[in-house]
Prior knowledge:
The complex is a heterodimer of chains A (424) and B (187).
Chain A: H1 12-20, H2 23-32, E1 35-37, H3 46-65, H4 75-84, H5 89-116, H6 125-147, H7 152-163, H8 172-180, H9 187-218, E2 234-236, H10 237-262, H11 292-300, H12 304-316, H13 321-324, H14 338-357, H15 363-389, H16 400-404
Antiparallel strand pairs in A: 1-2
Chain B: H1 5-11, H2 19-44, H3 50-54, E1 58-61, E2 70-75, E3 78-84, H4 87-95, E4 118-122, E5 145-148, E6 155-157, E7 162-164, E8 176-180, E9 183-186
Antiparallel strand pairs in B: 1-9, 2-3, 3-4, 5-6, 6-7, 8-9
Amino acid sequence: MAGLHKSDIPNPVINWIDSRLPIFTMIQKEYGVFPTPKNFNYFWNFGALAMVNLMIMLITGIFLAMSYQPNAMLAFDSVQHIMRDVNYGWLIRYVHQNGASMFFIVTYIHIFRGMYYGSYKGPRELLWILGVVILLLMMATAFMGYVLPWGQMSYWGATVITNLFSAFPVIGPKIVTLLWGGFSVDQPTLNRFFALHYLLPFVLIGVVFLHIAALHIVGSNNPLGIDVKSDQDTLPFHPYYTAKDSVGVCVYLIVFAALVFFFPNFLGDPNNFIEANPLQTPADIVPEWYFLPYYAILRSVPNKLLGVCMMFGSLLVLFVLPWLDTSRVRSARFRPIYRVLIWVWVLAFIGLGVCGAHKPEGVWVVLSRLCTLYYFAHFLVILPILGKLERPLPLPESISRPVTGGRGGGPLPSGAAAKPMEKA
Amino acid sequence: MANSPATTAAHGHPADVTKRDMLQLVAGAGAAIFGGSIAFVLIDSMNPSKDVLALSSVDVDLTPIQLGQGITVMWQGKPIFVRQRTPEEIKAAEDVKLSELNDPQSDKARVKPGHDKWIVLVGICTHLGCIPLGNKNTDMRGEWGGWFCPCHGSQYDTSGRIRKGPAPANLPVPPYAFESDTKIKIG
């Protein structure tokens, strides 16, 4: 269908543009009047927060790249140059450095939201899969970004993580040499990591766009996990959720600012204040906090190849989560057993993180094995079986019911069903 | 949308100012200040950093410079011409009537008192930034024996003043001072 788009926008200039390229109509449709379930709680802020965080990382990163030198001889000094000499360089770098941690906090809560309220279930499977792709891209970007300051932890983290690929038989060592562009982590590695660290966020934006596009086709899930049945169940995105998201952004910025201005190195590692030394490994080598659970899984398995496979498997299993969970009820609110077990899984995940921060000795080995076992059992055993055994609580008839008439479900009182939801 | 009758009726405000207008104004102003301060930080980070500013002065020893010869030194990434003028060149520079100049300035104003054989200039053509020829005796120096810009043919006299060509202004004199008779500090 050719011809001009019929635009409703009164401003003649914007109307002229909108008739030829209806971006204003699109914004109005997708972010203005977009019908959104009216019962969101604050967990639904975290998608918007992640978007804000991505923008902060991009902008600060671009300005950091203007002063950073991706050269093994200069990288460490150029970071110190940013911290000491560049105007507000300390601020931009601390925002970028702590922004990575904030990004993972926000994203992990966002993922937990999806798991607790069953957002990965049909028809949102692809939306979830795109989300897992985003998580993997984020992790790759964060890992390569951590290498750039070229401190001791940067160097040895890069060495350890790239060496993971050496576990694969036959081709493993070849892959590692390819990744390094040499026979150890060195100048070619740093240079390509910088190139990829700059590239991947833009790939990330592309996948985030698909994630949001898919979201706007199937619509948001909600805390009750039931489908939207009528206009009475929704509110326009603006001003209701723009306002609610703004509240969340303010709280997020307060936490972020506290981290940046009062504890800028709290989540960092002191070893990274020492320039990379290929001849000496630090006594305690740990990844950044957001990788600790996977690191613990890796170390809990006594076999090299199996450990690497389990570590990657702990992330890849998320791709098939929509098909592992056999329950047709989405929200944990109506799943009395799942509602407890999801928290046990969260505890196992946090437990893995704690184990990852300690040397693999004594009780930490046992604990990390137990947590690893539960992590996988949750996905591969409990979820497929639980869906068949669990008896869910009765679901409310619509989103409007519990909002307007008390919490919970149950049959409607007689009479109410005859003329449901006459006012919003 | 801000002027709903219900709001004004409930609070008794005039119809044209409501609580919502106030909130929108405060929120908008807050966002503008917040965004502006972030933009300031980011843009200011592109200004010269402290280590660049620290390279603000350079010492030049004048003893190796022969009569009639100029040298080029680097100051803040820019070429600085330092030339020892012959008595004829000084006389030529001083005898010019100011009315003949495109950018009138006396030679006295362009040298340090008592050191009029030394001329110190920022060696960047004021037209489009090329470096004029003329420090070496063998260079093309133009009709006035000073400097000649190879890019668009601007000609400067022995005081570095523009005499012919598209350049609009004289070669600037950088801030400098004589530390002794044979040493200057530029910057």
